[in-house]
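Hi all, long-time lurker, first post. I run a small reading group and we've been trying to get comfortable going from sequence to structure in the token notation. Rather than ask abstract questions, I figured I'd post a concrete chain and ask someone more experienced to write out its structure so we can walk through it together at our next meeting. Sequence below, copied exactly:
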Amino acid sequence: MPEIEKRSIEKTVYELSSQGRSTNLMPECDVPEAKLPVDLLHEDLHLPELSELDVVRHFIRLSQRNFCVDSGFYPLGSCTMKYNPKINEACARLAGFSQSHPLQPIDTVQGNLALMFELQEWLKEIGGFAAVSLQPTAGAQGELTALLMMRAYFRDRGETGRTQILIPDSAHGTNPASTTMAGFEALEIPSDEHGNLDLAALKAACDASVAGLMITNPNTLGLFERNIESIVRCVHNCGGLVYGDGANMNALVGAVRPGDLGIDVMHYNLHKTFGTPHGGGGPGCGPLGVSEKLASYLPGPMVRRAKNAEKSEPAEKIKPVYTLFTPEKSIGRMNSHFGSFGVFVRAYAYILQHGAEGLKQSALHAVLNANYLRERLRGIYPLSHDRTCMHEFVLQGKIEGSSVRAVDISKRLLDYGFHPPTTYFPLIVPEALMIEPTETESKQTLDAFADALKAIAQEAVDHPEILHTAPHTTAVGRLDEVRAARKLKLREDVVQVKKEFE
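-- Answer (accepted) --
Happy to help. Here is the structure in token form:
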């Protein structure tokens, strides 16, 4: 059967529609009918008329097209799409957590506050910081929050001339946007030939106009910044602060504490490092850890434990053990309530299961898996930087003697049953393929992935047209992604859909 026929064999819900068919049988109305407000009525919806079975089968088919961590290897670099223990989900669904409300009196949610307090304390210990706020609900919001705190810090010191934020070209892409939103100017600092931040360029940029540096460590090349202590010292010497983008903290947990390196403020991605399913737009959580000098600027509310909590008192005099407070110079709330509480529960369960040694082993295995895969692909694809990587690494998606590009390799991987790695990021590497195996994948999975990439490399030489037209086994073929991004069509035209399938 020709490929195009395979892809059009599944009918749309509009083709399945039959006049008068319904998903339910309602009894005759035995109460007075009420008219709906005019603004709720639409006569041009043309919704398909289907039975319940048609609807169920349609959505089941759609769900089976989805690729997810539970169904296959997801090597997206910089995104940490790892398997997350299902017990975390069970904990988050416990009635005392899932059915509580943020506006309840604090004496009725002491268990919730106890969990938040202990999570704050654990994150302080893991990162080596003086204080932690759980307020930010995403990594990018953590960035923005940190920059707003830095701005408030310098305003209080009368240093309003500090308007620049230094950002390495190997940093995460949201850093410049967060900088602009916070009212600062972004100044890019290049990388050197080894993939580190160029120390000479940094020294040249450090002056009285610098408010701080945003640095991702390990960076988006998957490399640990060898000169991190010198980098921090350089920024501090000119009076600036150092923000650590903790999105790649899953490579460091238990091995390195950013606070010990002199980092002033850092966000954690609980949804990447500590076991919340990541992807599809959320949920996210980006708590902030800070040094002593910034602790009073953290967003609230935060949780603290009463000093006399251990004392035994008559039941009628017992006060809440855990209470809420806002730091003295706080920049204010970043959310209407306390943050992503469900993510707190998952992270708490994840940390509790692993313990200090287990968390360290997770980080070490993430680094081991990445280096194993990098070595298996050495000589097949060019490496961006040929040195020991951390939790991820970057290849160049090009083969000598072939016209294929990174996008062709990624599309062909779909035919082999693998989700592609991050493609064309970081931007400083031509034809970048950014691969992160995570600590949860087995050697067998990594070997199968490496074998697929090796086979694709051979196809690129022998039959490049296969790659140029891939994928071939998916429900739809290669889409025009540029056109889709530039000419968004968010409303489905029913008439056009029918014409396309006639």
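A couple of things your group might point at:
The first strand starts at residue 131 and ends at 133.
Confidence is low (pLDDT under 50) at residues 1-9.
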